[in-house]
Each structure stands twice: as structure tokens, then as C-alpha cells.
Amino acid sequence: MDSGVEVGMTLNYVIDSSCSKYKDSKAIGMAMEEPLTYGEFYECILALAVKLSGEGVKKGDHIAILGENSHNWGIAYLAIVRLGAVAVPILPDLPESDVHHIINEMQVKVLFTTQKQIEKIYELRREITGPVITLDDFDADFGVVKVITFSGYLDAALSDFRNSAEIPEFPQVEEDDLASILYTSGTSGYSKAVMLSHKNLTSNAYSASGLMDIQPGSVWLSILPMSHTYEFTCGFMLPLLCGARIAYAGKTPTPAILQKLCAHEKPFAIFAVPLVLEKIYKKRVLPQIEKSKLLTLICKTGVGRRFVYKKIGRKLITFFGGNLQLMGVGGAALNPEVEKFLYEAHFPYLIGYGTTESAPLIAGGPAGDRSITIGSTGKAIPGVEIKIVDANPETKIGEITVCGANVMQGYYEDEENTQAVLSSDGWLSTGDLGYFDEGKNLHVCGRSKNVIVLANGENVYPEAIEHKINTYAWVVESLVVENQEKLEAWVYPDYEFIDEQTVGISRSDRRAYMENLLDAMRLELNDQVSRSSRLAKIFERREPFIKTATHKIKRYLYLGHALLG
Questions:
Q1: Fold of 461-564
Q2: Among 59, 317, 339, 509, which is 20 to 30 Å from 388 by CA?
Q3: pTM of this structure
């Protein structure tokens, strides 16, 4: 079957190669369900591409995907790029106004969506010229939006494809052709449309494949949104490149659901944001130690602590199905205390650092390299060059800049912002601050925009203080801000923990308990940080902070002190 001659660095070439090599192997599906084989997956992609072509989809057209993870999401994406069209993945947790903006700006021709997302497009139907197809087969029969179910659409496509005597001819797709436009959900308040080519995405997947030995047939449990480059490259293209099988969680993985899925699938790899591991550490690891006087005593020595941590580490691997060999951690900074536990527990974690603009991986691993220091993101990945520019002579901290085949083409129709971050010779300014240690490990200190410069000229990195605050068992998340030349912190407590500790006491006593906790924390923290990083006050926040898709707080919403009240 002629699927068009493709260049080696296109997404189409990767899929052609894998589906030919692993044709009868299991490829992709929902967790705890029978997956599609690579051969079946390939046939669905080609059939859907032919069907979309019949709808008038041409090379360069923008096709949006607004939905939760599924194998159907993957089929839709790969059918879009097969035609040389541009996939526009939209994060499922974006509000309706952002969805409207993206669909309008992109002039979307066809939309793939789900029941959970359908209400966001009620006012937009006239803006989408082609069909609206529901990936979860939701049939909106109340007339607001006319939809086509994915199964029905694909069945028709497969029937036509199998009965056609003609060999399909697809447009020539080159490695520098645009594959995807992704809207960042950054912390700076302005969402930019990042243009990523086929080569940007495939080069990053190829580089990632060299970080550890990945066997065909290994199971990858997917829990992060595919509409984010982190999961798309590392949790979708990478396993497909290596002949692995992807299983989608299909729902928000609470610890109980995660344990059930892992017991069934026994995954080799999972990619997660730090929040997942931090919750496990605070909810399952610390309580085990703190409830036992003996374990608390043993953990007071380094040898004892490592012995206990290794035992807990083995239990954690059992929790994740017993076969886990890669827990990829990225999207935000991992708390150093949690990482220290993972390291001493011999838990198979690997930290990665990247940006949407770099498709996304910049540094990480390689697996098994014992020279990687705790607190770092490991080495620059193969094929990516990193330079620290404008470094402070004393601290060696400067802006992280990157060059490689993974660096974006630019921001869509935004030359000003493109030129601000992308040099003429291909170097990307990430906006992140960091430094290299003697072992060539990259340490990321935080966003340059987040640095608090005090009146005496000293730089304070709020993320470092927040990490210390977040180690407290009763804290969910925190934010450090400057107010009139003083540092203050806002803390969103774990109210389940507070409730357990204050059962049966009056409201006023509960408030006093909370104030005492905050004040005691402030005194303890101020003994652990430099004079310039000491906190004048810590306040209780009664609702979670608004966050990005990778659970980073959108700081720009909380810059003014009044906004926090």
C-alpha cells in the first residue's frame, strides 16, 4: 500500500516504520480493554485521512482536537498530519473563552471533541466549516450542535478504504512542514500559539529514545493530557517509535484508580507531573514513618533512613504494578525533599526539563547515570545544546538558552514575540534561570520573571521557598510574593488533615490552631533560609490557586497583594 513517500524525520515516517515493523503487536487502547494492533491502528489512520480528504481537508488546513486522552485522539491526530494538515490540540481544561479564541484564530475546518467539552462550542458552530466529530461517540440529539460519532465516521471510512480499488495518494509531507500549533498555558498570562514542525517533534522523540533501553511490547500507562507536548512526545510518539503499547487511564487517576489500573496493566513507564509523586509522598510515605516511633528513630540516621526508604520504595513499585522501570517526572519542578526520598528509595524516576517551544524535552537523564545530582534535571539530551547566558559571576545563574532540531518555528502570526525569544541562528531563550554543576547537570532555579529583586539588590527565588513550605504535611500548595519590600507567603492547607487534627473543637479554637500552625511554620522556615529570604508573614488561602495544565500556579494572577485577599 502506497502511503506517500515520506522523509525520515516526519511523524508519518515514524508511524509507517513502526506499523510495518510491529504490525501484529499490540499498539494502543484504553486501559483494561483490548488494544488495537499496530496494523489495525495504521489502517484506521489511513482510512480516516482518506475520509477527511474527501471532506475537503487539504495540506495546511487547521484541524482542532478538543478532548480527553484516548486511542481515537491519537488516530485523529495522525490522520490530520498524514494529509499535511496542521493539528491544533486544545487542552481540555481550558475555559470556554479560550476555546473560542483558539478556534476563531485558527479558522478550524474540522473539530474532534467529546461530551465533556461540547458545551464550550455551542456558540461557535458557525465558525467550524466542516464536521464536528465526537471521539467518545457522544450523540448530541438535542439539536444545539450537529455531531458525527467517531465510530460511525471511522466505520464508514474503513468500509470505503477497504472497498476502494485505488491506492490512496496523500500530499508530500516534508520534515520542516508544520505539524502542530499548540497554545501554551503558561504562568505569564499571555497564551502564545507555538508552531512545531514534524522534525521538531520527531527529533525530540528520537533523542528521548536514547535515554534508556526501551523494549518493544513494554506497556506505557498514559495519565497526562496528550494535548500537552510533554505527554505527546514522551508518552505517545516515543512508545510508538519503540514498538511499545500505550494504555490510556481514561479518567482522573486518583490513587485508588491508579492502583487498580497498574495492577492490571503492570506498566513499564508512566509520565507524571511532580504533584502525583508529591501527593504519594505526603499521603502514603510520611504517615508510615511518623506514625511509628521506631521508624522515626531509625530515620534519624542516614543508614537507617536509606534502609527504611528502600523498603517503602519496593512497596511503591508494587503499588504501580510491580514492573515499573521509568517514572518520568516533568512539567514543573519536583520538590527536593521528595526527590531525595525517591533517590534513596531506589525508585526508578527520571526528571526531565523542557518547554512547549522545544517540543518539549531539553534535558533529562540518561537513566542509570549516577553522576546526576539531586535537584538537577540531568544532562542535555542528545542533539540539544544548552548555553547559560548573562550569568551572575558569583552564582553562575543565568538564562537557559537552547539550540537544536527540536526548537519551534516561532509563534503563529506573532513576529514580535518570536524575535524576542528566537535568535536568527536558532537559539531559543527559555525565560528560565539555571546553571550547570561540575558534572554538566542542569539546575533550573525558576522563571526569570518570578525572581524577586529586593531593595538591597539581592535576588530571591520564590520557588525555592515554596518547595520548603510544601514539604509540610498539612500544606497542599503555596505562593511567595513581595509586598512593600517584604516577603509574604500564601498557603492553601490540606483541609482533610486540618479536620482530622481539630475534631470536636470550636470554630474559634480551630482558627487559633490554624494561626499557630502558620506562625510556627514561619519561624521554622526563617531558620532554614538566608536572611534575604525570610518571610514577614504567612497567610491562609481558602481555595486552590489557578494553575496551568502541568499544575504550575499562574503567578501573574496573584502579583498584587490585594488580589490574594
A1: GMP Synthetase; Chain A, domain 3 (3.30.300)
A2: 339
A3: 0.90
